[in-house]
Amino acid sequence: MMVIRPIEARDFPALVRFACESGHGFTSLPKNELRSWQEEHAA
């Protein structure tokens, strides 16, 4: 059984890296918006 948890602030560095490395068309994650959100919510 796979358990999936909601994303947390500590997950954003990996999420941004995934969005950048996955290439065009693989994900619809907006790289710039993710980086902006990460910078605004950095602890």
TrEMBL record:
One Pfam annotation reads: AstA
InterPro entries given in the database record:
Acyl_CoA_acyltransferase, Arg_succinylTrfase_AstA/AruG
User: What does the record give as EC number?
Assistant: 2.3.1.109
Per the UniProt record, the source organism is Pseudohaliea rubra DSM 19751
A GO molecular-function term, please? arginine N-succinyltransferase activity
GO biological process: any one? L-arginine catabolic process
Official protein name in the record: Arginine N-succinyltransferase
List UniProt keywords, sorted A-Z. Acyltransferase, Transferase
